[in-house]
Amino acid sequence: VVVLAVSYGLFVWSHPPTAYQFSLGFMVAMGVLAAVQREWRGLLWIGVGAGLGVALAAAYLLPAMLEQDLIHKDYILSSWPYHNTYVFVHDIFNAANYVDFYRRINWLWVLGLATTLICGVALLTANAHEAQAVDGTAKGIRRWFAYFERDGLLSAGLKQRVLMWTALGLFVSFMMHKISRPIGEHIPKIEIGIFTWRMLEMTTLVMALLAGACWHAASRALQQHRRRAATVFATLSLMILLGGSALSLLSVCLPMAKAAIFEPEPEHMNPATLPATAPDPEELPDDVPLGELAEDNGEVVVEKWEPEHRVLRAELTDADQLWIRTFNFPGWTATVDGQPAEITTGEDLGDIQINLTAGSHEVRLDFLDTPIRRKAERVTLITFALLVVMVAISLLLKRKRPDTARGEAHG
Hints:
Layout: H1 2-14, H2 16-37, H3 41-56, H4 58-66, H5 74-79, H6 99-124, H7 140-147, H8 156-175, H9 181-184, H10 200-223, H11 227-257, E1 291-293, E2 298-306, E3 309-316, E4 320-327, E5 332-336, E6 339-341, E7 344-345, E8 351-356, E9 359-367, H12 371-410
Antiparallel strand pairs: 1-4, 2-3, 3-9, 4-8, 5-6, 5-9, 7-8
Helix pairs in contact: 1-2, 1-3, 2-8, 4-12, 6-8, 6-10, 6-11, 8-10, 10-11
């Protein structure tokens, strides 16, 4: 539970769109495994682990969910509509400029689906005759379950996992194709993934796992002097490994070796994360001062300009309004000469504006947590502490068991 919580929490922290898509596949995979093992209690513990993982990422996740109306969240949906990104559709961007990229996406999807089907079927039917060894009166589902509980070319545990991986590969391949749209439209917030073909990372994982299972089956077959089976599974494993490596080399590495070196822009501007009160980035004026006075009744000097802390000094001959070229966003607080000051939002640029009286003033801006962010941080800290306690208890119980067993042996 702790390992799942930590790994899943870090996954959410690192890239929420991918984590959401993986979550869909993970639920399907765990459902299949629970059905085959007939162990439904395990799903409860998986739910606990995943829930703790979400709580561990609460410091990021909760503000992102509850404060999303504060930014231009519709920019993503309008620019990259999720249901226009299915394989063989790609109705986004300028298709003519991305034709090679889309072709690679399509071929990767075909490769993943073909590998899942061929390797999955080959591994699961390697010893299909074992199903006949069950009591002749066994029918249907009972015989099917019995097959996955018997060792053969694959151990029972590995056979169950191969079925789980195959189901996962088929599910995500289905979800990347337009025929899944009637289902996808009813999955809450599926558009978080932005691109359907991000799920190719799961088919790649499935291919790697099936390649390992094929190599394991080849080794077992060789030990059992079944040379034909050993040849088939070794060939499948090498085809995945060598074919995938060749595809990466020819389709990605070599073309990118000739590409221009990426140079980041001096100032990054992401339209999706701009405050809702901010204008379109294309409409922002160029070469405006960091701070200025509306009526020009004095001078403004910027003494410090850091991401979350800014200090300006204003010398005014008459009352005026200070315009600070910083988008006003919940969390920004201002003080004038050490006293809290009210911030207003500029109508044209959505920037910070503060009314000042005549005289000399020191204006400080600090970006602090909102109540939602503070509560979310507490959830993350409490969850982290809980996981530490769980690990400590687990280690103590593990240490106590040998001592108990040793005492019983001496008794």
